[in-house]
Amino acid sequence: MSARKTSAELADTIRQHLDLDLDPIREFLSAAVTVTDVDTLRPGPAPRLVAPSVALDDVTVTVGLSASDPSYLGTFDRTTGTRMVQVSIQARSATALGTDHPERRAPAVRLPAEEQIAWVQVVLGDLSDYAYRVVNEWGRYRIRPEFFVVFIDRGGTPRLAPSDFQWVLISGGRRAYPEKLIPDDPELLAHLRNHGDLIPADLVPHPQGTSPQVWAHQFVSHLTATIADELGRIGNGRRFTFDEISLHGHSTVIVRYTWHLIDGDKAYGFDIDLAGVRAQRLRLFDDPRARTAATRIAALPFDQPVFRAPEVIDGVTWVRFGAPE
After folding, report:
1. Sign of the C-alpha dihedral, residues 51, 65, 172, 117?
2. What is the pTM of this model?
């Protein structure tokens, strides 16, 4: 029995012994990282390779590529024009099915992981060092196409995925997680060993913002979660009662709470102009994310703040956020 070959050895076999035309794939990858609008890639047919398996007999492998904008799936630097290139790999038996059922497709075959990675290395070249295999629970129960992704900035520089990337939205299923391919680049390998294979979302510079409508709901969600977390930390000796957290349209959030002091209760209200808060965060910190803005404001009541020039109306001390300074 011959020894099982590594993915690198299988990739060499594919390059040396299979007559493959990789020019359409190279042109596609070049276009994916140079066009300003990824939608311009979609009208034409996506590049595809069909070739015999190099690890299994009588099996045909189909490799397809597609490109899309990943900005809605995680935190990316909005100045780099990052694209997500997805590689799909499926294998089917090449054995004839007979004439009784000509309409039936050839049965799917589970391709060894080493050959899957070999095909990724062949079609992506050095970019495969940054590729991830996307895994979900469906693969446990039935044979399905395998998916790999790599993130490439405008100009062709690959990058690692952000820690908040929503893998399940590209793989389907209920749960999904990435498996980082082991790179050939020793410097990248050392980085992965020391820092992990994902970039912390909080460290991504120039993060991408969302639409005002989505931003408003994200803000309320993170605001509420942070307040609940702070109240949980206080435990039984609560000094605060929150009476209202409400979103009005997509422009204003109202928070009302009572601070229970030894000298008596004191009522507070936050009037939050969402557009103003977002603009301030962008101007001061180049950060348009709803989460960072919401967590900052939500933590204020618990820090015993002294607000500048609040307005008292009917016994409630109102503090306004996002108003022009």
Report:
1. positive
2. 0.72
**Domain parsing of the chain, residue ranges:** 7-203, 212-321
- Which pLDDT tens digit goes with each residue over 88-98? 999 999 875 54
Q: 188, 186, 132: which is closest to 162 by C-alpha?
A: 132
Q: Is 211 exposed, middle or buried (0-12, 13-18, 19+ CB in 10 A)?
A: exposed
pLDDT in tens, 182-233: 999 999 999 999 999 999 988 888 887 777 888 999 999 999 999 999 988 8
CA 193 – CA 189 distance, rounded (Å): 6
Q: Where are the alpha helices (DSSP H) in 211-273?
A: 212-234
Q: How many CB atoms lie within 10 A of CB 37?
A: 9
Spatial distance between the Cα atoms of 163 and 41, rounded to a whole number of angstroms: 27
